[in-house]
């Protein structure tokens, strides 16, 4: 989808700009540049995407069967860098489950390293803020390694060092379901015993989780609070010695689901200098003030066998461990919600900016899971976000901060705080 040509005010100090790609823009500096030039000059960075292993079937890939952040899609959309998360879902918290999780993580890690070490590839692995800037200046597509779900570690905090040595720089302790390090914002429904996990098992972070946050700080890694429970996130804000990010989290006041951030969490992230990266994910961008829509979603939940009043705000996606029931549930929810738009995502960006400022917001797509958004279904359509930001009056400098400048600042601060 391409935004229609329209005239909007960019700032109070400029005259008029057009948000139609290809026409000239008059930003606050008085320069005449095109939308494409603004987009190209920015470090366009996606703070979270999931790894698709080549040759493996996946229901989360794009309609073409390829990753939503495949290098050719990055280049087409002018996306300079993506944080690719070595991630696993929920599973048994025992020796067998830990081994399975570590095996999957090692396989994902190897896939990214193979891609970036291929001399014929135009994609490079970056391990520092300086390397990220250099890749952008040289016109190379960059990947940064992330990590999601400490179930990969079992109960071994020292394994963080192994992932850091392999190139991982962004660390999130939870995905769906609790683990031995922290409580998740997304307890799961376990079909075989027909009950949910408790809302919390640790009261936030466990002792292992606290040790992990300290170690990530010492290594110079970036702490990512996306998908932590609210209490766990608040404990991280108090504990971390460097600013943190939420790599793919939206606003709970607008879309009242358990994975999104409360105003209290948003405010604390701003207070400690962190950055919230908004995701184009339809299930976390719907209007929860629509009471009839919420009523219909609850009916779908009951039909799927989820206890009606277990949790509110409720979780829309991947709450069920039975894949067939899960897919039926997802299809029904998607039909209820209908397609979203880039504007839905921009509403959440606006909210964060108005609440805590332009220095504390970014974009993390959760691609290969995310979207359902017309105009931003994969990396190839990233220019539409820049167009939308211009339409809403954001300056060129603002856009550079949102797309990657704010993440780069966090990257440097994490590095400088390492021991």
Describe this structure in words.
With 419 residues, the chain is of the alpha/beta class. The protein has a single domain (41-416), classed as TIM Barrel (Alpha-Beta Barrel). The chain has helices at 35-41, 71-77, 95-117, 129-137, 159-166, 207-219, 230-239, 263-271, 291-303, 323-337, 342-356, 383-391, 396-416, and strands at 7-9, 16-18, 24-25, 33-34, 45-50, 81-87, 123-125, 141-148, 168-172, 189-190, 195-196, 222-224, 245-246, 275-278, 340-341, 361-363, 373-374. The strands form six sheets. Strands 5, 6, 7, 8, 9 and 12 form a six-stranded parallel β-sheet that branches. A three-stranded parallel β-sheet has the order 13-14-16. The chain has a two-stranded antiparallel sheet with strand order 1-2. 49% of the residues are buried. Residues 1-27 and 309-313 have low confidence and may be disordered.
